[in-house]
Amino acid sequence: MSKKVVLSGARPTGSLHIGNYLGAVQNWVRLQDEYDCYFFIADWHALTTGYEDTAGYKENIDEVVKDLYASGLDPDKCNIFLQSALKEHAELHLLFSMITPLSWLERCPTYKDQLVQMEDKNIRTYGFLGYPCLQAADILIYRADFVPVGEDQLPHIEMTREIARRFNFLYDSVFPEPQPLLTKAKVLPGLDGRKMSKSYNNTIALKDRGDVLRQKVMSMITDPARIKKDDPGHPDICPVFGYHKIFNEQEVPEIECDCKAGKIGCVACKKNLFNKLSAAMEPIHERRDEIDANPGMVREILARGTSNARKIVEETMKDVRKAMKIDWE
After folding, report:
1. pLDDT tens, 254-276?
2. Alpha-carbon span 41 to 65, nearest angstrom
3. By the 8 A CB rule, do 33 and 73 touch?
4. What pTM value is reported for the model?
5. CA separation, residue 100 to residues 134, 155, 160, 285 (Å)
């Protein structure tokens, strides 16, 4: 029996950070052994909010591919490709935009939230409003069975399902309705305690190591109420303790007890975390060194993944055009 298809993507906004890894990519690495996986670099999606600044665009794409490889994605087990290399994504997006009611797009919660959160940017554009149509095209063109997402992305998957149902009703049953594959992600705060985000400049990149990593770890905020080394701490509100729970699980009970009793200072706690984090990320850094030492490897990975993806999208679009009776060839 053929494997079920899984589809997901990552925007090329620069180097991935450990929040990206724990929130999504670590799960992708597990999925590649069980499913027929397609992971794309969503360069068109990046333009919906970043169209005014495309400096470093190509370099960002390279960085994401390198980080995905370093994280453990294997080109022999999954397909990594560039969204814009397959123009069929754009064609299906256009066709979906013809049948998707405007009210569906306007009610999308992400659209409303980001208009508020990104009020300093001019994102009241057709491309940003039509983002769900492009996302639906990305998913449905592979007739994906599953899409790994967090709960906050469920409305987007439901929109994709609605677009598939509408197309199938209007024309023919071309598309299956993809199911969300809920990801139980480990969430880490940024260095300053806020959500980890490049826009806050509070991330730890997957490629960070040595003095760079040490400096970032030692700069992390801790319990603000703890002034002296022997003051009782409150580990539950300390970002450093949150990292220990993921990268130093074995010592967590002891660290929690010593912190509350004022037996361990924040500097010593951070040094311990740096050592554990360095060890945990060593396999990622080794694979990163491998791909950095082979300049043509990024292009080879993308070319291979694109070739495999193209076979599917071409077949899907033949069925789409036939169903819509616009196959004039």
Report:
1. 999 999 999 999 999 999 999 99
2. 8
3. no
4. 0.93
5. 11, 15, 10, 44
